[in-house]
Amino acid sequence: MASFPDTVNENDLGKAKFIGELLVPAAPFDQKSGREAWTVAFAPNGSYFAWSQGHRIVKLVPWTKCLKDFSLGHSGEGTDAGSPRRLSRQNSSEALIPASEPCERTIDCGDIVWGLAFGSSVPEKQSRCVNIEWHRFKFGQDQLLLATGLNNGRIKIWDVYTGKLLLNLMDHTDVVRDLTFAPDGSLMLVSASRDKTLRVWDLKDDGNMVKVLRGHQQWVYCSAFSPDSSVLCSVGAGKAVFLWNMDKYTLIRKLEGHHNDVVSCEFSPDGALLATASYDTRVIVWDHHRGTVLLELGHLFPPPSPIFAGGSNDRWVRSVSFCPDGRHIASITDDRLVRFWSIEQRAPQTIASLSSGLCCAFSPEGGVLAAGTRDGSVHFWESPRSVSSLQHLCRMSVRRVLTTQQVETLPIPTPLRDYLTYKVI
What we know:
- One of its GO terms (biological process) is protein polyubiquitination.
- The protein is mainly beta.
- The protein has 5 helices and 30 strands.
- The strands form 7 sheets. A 5-stranded mixed beta sheet has the order 1-27-26-25-24, with no helix packed on it. Strands 6-2-30-29-28 form a 5-stranded mixed beta sheet.
- It is globular.
């Protein structure tokens, strides 16, 4: 399948609007390695943005303040009008921020940080451990946690508002590459590691480990929960995509279609679609309920042979992220480009230049994409904007609660069922 039609030239595509960047000043001895921003993350409520800015440091920035600083850059205050805002986060003073507002924080995690995840609690979601009535920690509804996955295999849990270390989880035997919280507010945390396992932790049970998920034969790079927290996707140094039932902690199925390591994954906001990124130069959008490929987003034209895609090339896709509008996808590749895609097209809508990009994430409202790089800096672009079709709005509403199979069995006319079903592009 071609990555985009012959009539489309990426040099003719529109450029995404660059709105700002967060820079990390480097010492002379600090130029080669150890500065990578392996992960970026937004708090679910939009209060904070966090990124691993190299070595042992995680930076937490109030997101609203960050956006205001970027807008100042465009208004001409303190810089040339129309130019993006460049902010150094090394010597920022928290004393200038009122105590009632979120404060910028610098957290020394003690080792290289590979994974980051925000988690917030919903009080009615109780711990799955029903035999223990007393817990050391009681997480309130207004509490925001940050989990950090480290090079030494440890996971540290921090209170974002106070900066205090709450828990130190130790069971992995190698790098913790990725972390993800269940979005239902249960504070169930999943860690993906180079020790070839996924581990499930219950933070409402003082961080006790609930389950070890085994199945990967090599490193695990990334994991992602479905919006209803019932399914977990995991990918790693292999060509398969794993889907897990998180009620029973069992493997549902493996999705086969990539030709190289799969390094990133994310579900659509309605849970109907799954996007996976691979070193084979492609992003695949799946109907994970059926295990079928709906769309292939190619980053090399003409499409490479499976042998070429399975080896080293300059189009490795490093990261993929689904926009909260459910219509757009962003990808980061080794060809120094960020691409914004529509799920209804095979060609990118807009592109942007980015050297040495490693990861990306959309803001909770979907208006901004953040991307981390090898030099520890983060770059921000405005997301593509368009009016959603009635079909998309209807489909999103229905697919939040119904699987593909359930839609197909609805007692409604066939054209209406087709209207609510994602199709192969």
